[in-house]
Sequence to fold (694 residues):
Amino acid sequence: MTAVTIYDVAALAGVSIKSVSRVLNDEPNVSQTLKDKVQKAVHQLGYRRSLSARSLAGASSYLIAAFVDAELTIEHWKSGRGNDYLSRLELGALMECRRADYHLMVELIDHGSDTLERDVTALLAALKPAGVLLTPPNSDHPQVLAVLERTGTPFARIGPEATSARGFSISMDERQAAQEMTEHLIGLGHRRIGFISGPANYSASRKRRGGFEAAMAAHDLPVADELMVEGDFTFESGVAGGGRLLGLDDRPTAIFASNDDMALGVLQAAAALGLKAPDDVSVAGYDDTPSALFSTPPLTTVRQPVAEMAARATRLLIPALKPEDASEASIVPYELILRASTAPLAA
Amino acid sequence: MTAVTIYDVAALAGVSIKSVSRVLNDEPNVSQTLKDKVQKAVHQLGYRRSLSARSLAGASSYLIAAFVDAELTIEHWKSGRGNDYLSRLELGALMECRRADYHLMVELIDHGSDTLERDVTALLAALKPAGVLLTPPNSDHPQVLAVLERTGTPFARIGPEATSARGFSISMDERQAAQEMTEHLIGLGHRRIGFISGPANYSASRKRRGGFEAAMAAHDLPVADELMVEGDFTFESGVAGGGRLLGLDDRPTAIFASNDDMALGVLQAAAALGLKAPDDVSVAGYDDTPSALFSTPPLTTVRQPVAEMAARATRLLIPALKPEDASEASIVPYELILRASTAPLAA
DNA sequence: CTGAAAGCGCTAACAT
DNA sequence: ATGTTAGCGCTTTCAG
Fold:
């Protein structure tokens, strides 16, 4: 089966290939008659332009490349688990690519490479993507950003630390979400609230912690040192941190963990100590991972609209989808998901 | 920044472009001197071949397309959750593509389309992928398979219902895994075991159920009708099914659910009835989703090596990676993951 | 408004 | 063992 080309369409329609190209690209100055003839032929032949020919000849490659961290990916691969964040991100990107007849390519970026700049440059040369979707931690990688800027490749950064660099940035207000979650806990009557932060070198950790402290301060609630513990975003660190907080003589009546995996760990630590959530301790997380829905009790958490962020980023990268009022940096709304792990303070 | 082409490399090395091409493609009859000169120039320029030019001129596109079900994807997108299965699958494919300098493209296939055959044909015409990775339920879609065969596109089916069609098939022995899990339960002393199956129209459901029944029969254990309930793979159906089984006058001492989400539901149903797992009832699942690790108690389950299956499939599709002994159908080993939700029958 | 010709950066036949 | 010459299927000039 030899593929149908633009020549076949032109021949069937009885016009030149340029005319076919014009119709296909919605170029101006095309008569309705021509349009009809061409469209009929295209339909009849089931013709579709070749991606590679289009990319080679034209300016755009109709390709969106998602840059994903190789190290993280390999870690997931080894653990035999998927990456929920990435998966959601991809769904969002995919939905938009489809609308505009673009294609999504996933590329692993190895930050450990000592030839990173060259690697990325070469990759861009090989792919010539119409746009690049940067996922954390690529969103903040100076060398990757530098190459992107140097080559003039449009890019969108998902959840970047800061929105200083060029390119688009799409993020949510991490700090405010944490603050709001803390307010929720305070609103339930909790005064003594424990906080488990993520590793300090993650910007998200710092932002979430800042939100917690701001809310406590706003209500004149002291934050004792013993109530602040640092985890590393893993379930195990949540178990450890939760155990420590709940082992306190004057234990907190609520614990806010900086992500769901740790909150789930807190839940387990509580169970191990014979404490019931939310009766004995309210527990809140952050991320809304699938597991948060299935824990006992289901976890109150913050939902980060990853798919929506990716969709928006993709729209910004595809000229045909780009909104008129496209601004460099956009903040998408998050959502507090209140489930059974948090409850009013027992009298 | 204008991209560096094969001409630049040839000029710098003082050879013809064909020689550069030869070296790059590892073609025979190339002197070491030439090789060195070219490689030096390539390195110096940071040259990388253009994907589109290569695809257009050559036979292969160096592209692996993963066909993903659009409907399922949209469902996930709406629910705001990722797809663990797909995510793991992608990781595996990505790791192999990277080794061979291939690229992974993700394509949504809309089974609902009444022009499905044309859509797929056109997509293949546009992409000319070197190989297609079929994920369930695409793995068994007759029309998709037909187009693939008609166009002569190499393809690999992940977890297909049957391995009759052409192309490669990579799967695990669902039936045997279920049988083995049942044996595990029986080995723990359980005799009265409840089973929650998936929807009958899924081949995996039937296979898992078959394995359960085989194990019970092998041990001369009767399977009462009241102990078999049908779910639909959702958490809610697990809650319902678990509630029904545990509400029985003579309730089972163990329950085997056909997937983790349902097993998690059983866990919740048990908790709601004041029953503790595994003391009062052992619970086993299937899939090893991330949530299985975080439930209380952590879930005993079957791990399906999705990433490994995808990696193998990808290797079969990439000539340079294809093993000598490549057989049409391969079965990858699964693993029983024994965690705290199953325990010996209390005396 | 439409068409002819010239590439895009490669690989594939053919030389030599 | 190396070089020359055509295309691959499109988009872009540039003409008419």
User: Anything to note?
Assistant: Chain B touches chain A through 70 residues (CB under 8 Å). The first strand of chain B starts at residue 63 and ends at 69. The first helix of chain B runs from residue 6 to 13.
